[in-house]
Amino acid sequence: MTRNEKSIPVIIVGGGQAGLSMSWYLCHEKVEHIVFEASTACHSWDDERWDNFCLVTPNWQCALPGHPYTGKDPHGFMVKQEIIDYVKGFVDSFSPPLREHTPVTSITRHENGGYRVIANDEVWHARHVVIASGAYHDAVIPGYASAIDPSILQVHSQDYRNAAQLPEGSVLVVGSGQSGAQIVEDLFIEKRKVHLCVGSAPRVSRFYRGRDVVDWLADMHFYDLTVDNHPLRDGARDKTNHYVTGRNGGHDLDLRLFAREGVGLHGTLETIRDDVAHFLPDLSENLDDADKTNADIKHSIDAYIAREGISAPTEAPYAPVWTPEARNTPLDLKAAGITSIVWCIGFRPNYRWIDVPVFNGAGKPLWNRGVTNAPGFYFLGLPWLHTWGSGRFSGISRDAAWLASQITGHDVAVA
């Protein structure tokens, strides 16, 4: 270590809810550490969400360590500003050693053990490094997008704010995961004509047999399901989240209902060539598969209710309210009056700044409960880090406590 190099036992990269949860445990264990955040602690909630964004999980699942939800609506859904206030309240509750506006640009192994971390041109040495910067780094926009007529505005979901941001005219939304389905509803409420390219994302009902589906699944310990016990094993990490919404108290997002009310549904977008969108012939299949996933979840709840002898109201099976026509017709963007495209096809992780052998050939990190094969190097806050709940407010605390136990060498109780 050179004279200009600073040393500290633990460095946490990322000051969102995951990195802050890690810091909370280390503070309580009196482990010296620092949290580097490239922007601000709440920037992703403030800068990368649309105006009407709200949680799709009920407020009672907001359980950061030592900072449970204490509001008056545990079964409601926090809107954007409430989420920001909740996370800021968590920061204020324990004053973490947080360095905002301090991007980490390089991590390498140190010749004397541990890791060499460059942050804002400062050089640090740490025995332990926790990467809590998430997995949603580079917005995915296909290469052919550059050939689309520049008069058609293109934005990624992270840059969408509201309908007024887009020029007058119809909107093409590409991708039907959580963001795509909710943005379609946001535009539809504002009386915009919308076309949606429907992918393979599954759906789930908001309520079933008298309760929020999340409540049922929590009682059934679904969120405690570990990736090792999932039928898909590591493949679970590549699955798209179910689309549903917490808007206005929460309700289903039924794409068939959207179609019946005027939204144009199309299959998976294959390409856009000469300003004509071409789709795969999979619309019916994608809608049917999403409905089947929803039905399977309901069946599992039915079985649980019967097994436990729970008294709950019955509910009729879902009946499709709209069925697509068999033909697979391309969409001429100009003829359809489309003046903007919202890309909702996700993100790619970007860990190119990490020169530590903890990645597979595709550049994805490898871990077991966040612990990598590189001694003292960890990941936190990723979907399915250990359980289905790992990527939620409800599961971060347990994962952070586990990593804190790896750092301290003794069991750390989950707060």
TrEMBL record:
Keyword Metal-binding found: no
N-terminal signal peptide: none
InterPro entries: Auxin_biosynth/cation_transpt, CHP04046_FMN-dependent, FAD/NAD-bd_sf
Keywords assigned by UniProt, alphabetized: Oxidoreductase
Highest taxon listed in the record's lineage: Bacteria
Pfam families xref list: Pyr_redox_3 (PF13738)
NCBIfam families for this protein: MSMEG_0569_nitr
Protein name: MSMEG_0569 family flavin-dependent oxidoreductase
Organism ancestry: Bacteria, Pseudomonadati, Pseudomonadota, Alphaproteobacteria, Acetobacterales
